[in-house]
Amino acid sequence: MGLSITHGIIKSYGGAITVDSTLGQGTTFHVYLPVIHEGVEEVDESKEAPRGEGRILFVDDEEVLIQMGHDLLEQLGYTVTAQRSSLEALNPFLTLVVSFLQICVPIFLSIQIKSICCIFL
């Protein structure tokens, strides 16, 4: 996860993050989250994750995240195409768009032509 995403998540919970970095010694992140005073809702862990169907195009530049995302989404019932870059991901997406247009454009043109003919008749 990127630092900006981590910062956003921590901030959304009312917390803060600080960084101490010394050249040659390393970096330390301190994460501060507020204490919860009201009761914590119990989570029913016996429930299965919701399942889905359909196709997902998963794009990330880190191989380990691609593999994790691919495996998780596939376990949930999706057909997953995973790519390492947006340029690699563009090709299957454009193929899908072209297929859609090849099917839909003739139908839309046919409907418009029939509508025009009805107006003139």
Tell me what you see in this structure.
- It is extended and about 65 Å long.
- The mean pLDDT is 81.
- Strands 1-2 form a two-stranded antiparallel ribbon. It has a two-stranded parallel sheet with strand order 3-4.
- It contains three helices and four strands, in the order H-E-E-E-H-E-H.
- Strand 3 (55-59), helix 2 and strand 4 form a beta-alpha-beta unit.
- With 121 residues, the chain is α+β, with helices and mostly antiparallel strands.
- It folds into two domains: 1-34, no CATH class; 50-121, no CATH class.
- 48% of the residues lie in helices and 20% in strands.
Give the topology, please.
Blueprint (H helix, E strand, L loop, with lengths): L2 H10 L3 E7 L3 E7 L22 E5 L3 H13 L3 E5 L2 H35 L1
Parallel strand pairs: 3-4
Antiparallel strand pairs: 1-2
Content-based structural category: alpha+beta
- Helix content bin: 40-55%
* Number of helical elements: 3
* Side-by-side strand order of the widest sheet: 1-2
Total beta-strand segments: 4
Cα-atom radius of gyration: 25 Å
- What is the number of domains? 2
Biggest sheet architecture: 2 strands, antiparallel
The general outline is extended
Binned strand content? 15-25%
Uncertain parts: none
Output mean pLDDT. Answer: 81
Instruction: Kindly report how far apart the N and C termini lie.
Output: 63 Å
* String of helices and strands: HEEEHEH
